[in-house]
Amino acid sequence: MRRTSITHEFVEYIPGKLAEAVLYISITYRTAVHQCVCGCGNKVITPIGPADWQLFYDGETVSLTPSIGNWDFPCRSHYWIRSNQVRWSSDWTDERIAAGQARDNRERERYFASREAVEHEPEAAETTNGDRRRPLAWLRRRSRS
Ligand SMILES: [Zn+2]
User: Using one digit for the tens of pLDDT, what is the confidence trace for 47-73?
Assistant: First the structure.
């Protein structure tokens, strides 16, 4: 059954067993986790960060942006969490998903490019070490936690 609302719980560690319709938020690990609100029970992990999801807490309710698109699940659910309400989107076509993912990748690249520029500016010699894979490794580390 499709949910239309969700509650949130601030935790340090994400519990192994998730309750339905609860968004678990760990500030320590900058991650939010919930069960897909379509009812399929799949675990949705949304890392929180400038290049990932942004979490808004108004003192009573939470919102996540951008939207959550569970394209890897059979349900292919797509929805927004706004003020603890679930706003459902119509199913996206494959083309639109690909376009969205391409846009996300471009934004990530831009973000990491600006980050690298700032980090390496004072020591230009360091950029010659050929370590161009670092941002990806950083992302992988983050998404495992
Ligand atoms: Zn689902």
Answer: 999 999 999 999 999 999 999 999 999
> What is the C-alpha separation between 25 and 5, in angstroms, rounded?
16
d(CA 39, ligand 1 centre) in Å? 6
**Tokens 């010659």, located at residue:** 128
* Ramachandran area for residue 118 (φ above 0: left; ψ -120 to 50: alpha; else beta): alpha
Tell me which residue of 14, 111, 32 sits closest to 68, measured CA to CA.
32
Q: Ligand 1 center to residue 42 CA distance, Å?
A: 6
CA of 58 to the centre of ligand 1 (A): 27
Got the DSSP string for 78-91? EEEEETTEEEE-PP
Give pTM, 2 decimals. Answer: 0.66
pLDDT digits (tens, 9 = 90+) for 76-114: 999 999 999 999 987 666 777 788 888 888 888 888 888
